[in-house]
Amino acid sequence: MKSGDNVMISADATNASGAPFERWELLSGNVLSFNPTMRSQSVTVNSNAIFEPIYRTTLPANTVELKVESSDHSVGRGRGGSPAKSRMI
Questions:
Q1: Which of 1, 17, 40, 63 is a good FRET partner for 70, with 20 to 30 A between their CA atoms?
Q2: Do residues 13 and 20 lie in contact, with contact meaning Cβ atoms separated by under 8 Å?
Q3: Tell me: the pLDDT tens digits for 23-77?
Q4: How far is the first Cα of the chain from the last one, in angstroms, to the nearest whole number?
């Protein structure tokens, strides 16, 4: 590879364990026009580059992922406009 070369990088949609693609990690090198969240793309390199696909790990069985929404448009705010606080019991 030489500076200015375009290379194509592509990752599988899921890895061997079935985990979905999350992002690319640039381990070394210098690149231009690089979007770490695009699974397949052409990248312009300025030097030798090493990319690693990162796949989302699953949450442990006892972990719950929550999304909180408010119908009164005060998302993320408590009374008086102060940041909302939450805790898990």
A1: 63
A2: yes
A3: 999 999 999 888 999 999 999 999 889 999 999 987 656 666 667 776 766 555 5
A4: 54
Length of the chain: 89
Burial 37-67 (b: 16+ CB within 10 A, else e): eebebebebeeebebeeebeeeeeeeeeeee
Run of H or E including 51: strand 50-55
Place of tokens 């008086």: 80
The residues with which 44 forms a beta bridge, in sequence order, are 6, 32
pTM summary value:
0.60
**Euclidean distance between CA atoms 60 and 45, whole angstroms:** 37
Among 56, 1, 10, smallest CA distance to 30 is for: 1
Which structure tokens are listed for 46?
């300025």
